[in-house]
Amino acid sequence: MTEAGTAASSAATTLPEPVRQRVLNLAAQALGQLPATDIPPPLRRFASFAPGKRAKLSASVLGPILQTDDHFRRLIAFEVRREHPELGDAVAEGIAVPAAEPIEVAALAYLLRPDEWEQRIAEAAQVPVEQPRADDDAVARLTDQLDQARTETRQVRERLREQVTELKAENVTLRRKLNEARQRISGLQSDLELRTTEANTADQRVDAARAEVERELRKLRARITELEAIEHAARRTAGQERELASTRTRLLLDTLVEAAGGLRRELALPPGGDLRPADTVAGVEPSASPVGRSAPDDDPALFDELLALPQVHLIIDGYNVTKTAWPNSPLHSQRQRLVTALGALVAQRRIEVTVVFDGAELSGPVQLNPPRGVRVRFSPAGVIADEVIRQLVRAEPPGRPVVVVSTDREVAESIITMGARALSATSLIARIARP
């Protein structure tokens, strides 16, 4: 090795203090730009410090590592050359830059290691060290502050880039999760709609089944009620039929007895005797006219004769009489006047009297107090009074005298065919008006 090379190698080993300080400042600034994995462990705790503080505190560790770790030195050199592209390229290519500071050139040469880098350090060692002036100190401080601001700006930019990258990745993840959530919600909504439809259909089926069961129950209850009513009516009808048969038999017997007695008195038949010769002579006897047949239907005398018949039953078409006698009076007044007058007639004659009113004329419950011995009936819903009168006539046993008071020709004709006698309303009105 030549003397110049030996001197250069020695200078490289022992850097001049200005060059050493500049090397440490440049390396400290570049240290903050390296990834943590590329920083040696002893220096990692200084990476987060400010550049000025980093240069002061890490000097004792950074200098030896730069001398011994070529890989780390090359990483620092790459960052320094990127920060000082013009001067760094000139130093790396061995181009002389007369305007450049020898100390700056020596520091870059030490880090970049171009050919004859030891010579650049030796030349910087020959430069006399000047005492720093106040302006130079201010410039140095401003330069440090500028370097620190640049470093902080780069750090902030890197952090912002990392944050943007993280936000973009998070946005992609959120969008994917949002799409998945939307798909799940759509599937859940479809499933909910399907289940709602199934539930509604099931509810409809349950309601239909419940309605069918209730309908069947109502039918069964109505049938049970109907059967109970039929059973009750059958029992009542059987009892009534037995009682009615006994009554009709007794009434018919009384009628026959009284009719026979009346006929005996009318014909003046002797209690008994032998057959007379004249009784054996053949001939045509005069026929006896029925009682009252020769008189008109509205004759009061005929009415009295019919009432004198034994066990006679007087049936009256109520409104047919009242509307003839008192057409301008209210219906309730007509009814009460008729039954009151009939009560006096019953008291005189001791006869059976039934008055039938048409139920269709009613607007509500009837308040009526019939006298003793006067039976009052209203036709049920859907049945006229004429039909009730016919039913009363049919209920009587054959042979009992029945008199129906009505000016309705249809009623008169129908009851005559049943064996009853029909009188006009005027005959009854004349009789009850007579004192």
TrEMBL record:
Domain of life: Bacteria
Keyword field contains Coiled coil: yes
Residue intervals passing through the bilayer: none
Listed Gene3D superfamilies: 1.10.287.1490
Alphabetized Pfam families for the sequence: NYN_YacP (PF05991)
Alphabetic keyword roster: Coiled coil
UniProt-recorded name of the protein: NYN domain-containing protein
